[in-house]
Amino acid sequence: MWKCIVLALGAIAVAANGAEKWLQVELVDQGPVRGRLDPDGGLYRFYNIPYATAPTGRDKFKAPLPAPKWTEPFDAKDRNIRCPQGNVFEPEDCLVANVYVPDTTDKNLPVVVSIHGGAYQIGYGTNRVYRNFVRDNKLIMVTFNYRLAVHGFLCLGTEDVPGNAGLKDQVAALRWVNKNIANFGGNPQDVTLSACSAGGGSADMLTLSSITKGLFQRAIIGSGVSTGAVGVQIDPIENAKTYAKLLNFNDVDNMESLEEFYRTASFETLTSQSQHITNNEDVAILFSPCVEKDVGQERVITDAPMTVIKTGNYTKIPLLYGFANMEGLMRLPFYSEWKDKMNEKFSDFLPAELHFESETVKEEVAQQVKQFYFGDKPVGDETILTYIDFFTDVLFGYPMLSQLSARVESLGDTIYLYEYEFVEEKTPSILDTNVKGSGHCDQTRVIGDQLNASPEFTEMANIVRQYFVNFIKTGNPTPPGSGFGTWTPANAKRTPHMLLGNVRQLREDILTTEDGKDRGAFWDGIYAKYYRGPVLIAADPVPGGTVSLAISKCVLFIVLLITLMFNM
């Protein structure tokens, strides 16, 4: 039996065949696609729909190509498609989206587009489940894959390797949503980005891009922003050279040869040293978004993110910013190895976006930072909580707060700020302390489905989730009539913020030491003196490398010789 329902621009057909029920949607410029009713009811799931085509071979670093077309209904079942990552082979043509649609005939539903995290190196669109979030709140959720690591973020500033392939995939996904979501019952003018970690950094970067204007109306950004060495490559050419050397390619100063190496290298070669891309002492990530050189192609980011913010060259939208109170827990696996290194040469752990005129100055600043955090005590078991605080600040805390201040000062952005510190009774204490804390992106658990959730988590999650849903639907986590009181947007001094934990309350101070010192203000002083933005790729033509340089010198010599001859 068939029953046809016309929704917006596309026809949606619902069919029942025994225990299976599915929904058919017509995609613009592609063809029909079928999704299945969730076994528990309440929503339809569409998996692995191609939203673009990843270029391959020598063109693998270029912008995505148009999505494929078909005439027969595309069966949107879960094929477990992921983009190449780590040392596990995955298909290169991996640009697929997943759409979760509530079982309703309502139109113009709010849309949430979630960008997965994973340090720009790992992850995929279906790594979290959002069935209850969609079912309970009558909104549409879209997730997707994008190219990762060297495949997604190698940046040479050439026509064939312009950079930010992964970000351009994200833009393609947002354009696909804008074109097609009405046919699923969603409102293309009511889209919220939601992301954490590298997803948060990506979402933040997209809010600063001129090519994304109108593709989303608000953003929830957790534990990651576009500034700092985690969010943007400080020197993409040097990063490309560094990684090439790890792959045993040494002709790195010849840019033509370097580009050819990357374009022709196999998947196995390019991923063989992926363990060196992240977890660097200076918090830098080798392959992350970059500031793109103008090579005559569409660019996502044309200038340093902080420059874009301070010049006001972006579209202002409501933002929900936040991070966990112990983001630095993600550096505990390196504690045994790093504590002695930090005592011997703390300067190696200063953020990569800081630049010093000499090693002497760098060492002086390093001692200043070490003294501020650790005092006269060594980095060790007695100061393990301070170790966590330090990495909380340099990884995500300070970059997010400094960017918040810059946005408010520039365009008066409306930014709701939170610090997430919820812990359960079963949460283990940190090493030999009695202290517990929330780690990197723990706040995302409140949106995704949780198996065997404790009553205390469920109670807290329901409240925090409602803040998020309110923001998604209104741009305000506590709109009039919500029953939550008022969550005031943060000012340029980074106050107030909402504490989201076992208690929920507005607070003034954020990132403070045990004795009340302002960690953010401390870093303000350091960054005011030593911050450098990303190195912009030289405007001179890259192809040819040292050969081009030799030719240029030869041409210059000939010009000078002719000039001398005519003036004799």
From TrEMBL:
Q: Which SUPFAM superfamilies match?
A: alpha/beta-Hydrolases
- UniProt KW keywords: Glycoprotein, Membrane, Signal, Transmembrane, Transmembrane helix
Q: Superkingdom of this entry's organism? A: Eukaryota
**Leader sequence segment:** 1-18
Residue spans crossing the bilayer:
547-566
Q: Which Gene3D superfamilies match?
A: alpha/beta hydrolase (3.40.50.1820)
Q: Which InterPro entries match?
A: AB_hydrolase_fold, CarbesteraseB, Type-B_Carboxylest/Lipase
Annotated coiled-coil segments of the chain: none
Give start and end of each Carboxylesterase type B domain: 28-505
- Provide the protein name: Uncharacterized protein LOC113492788
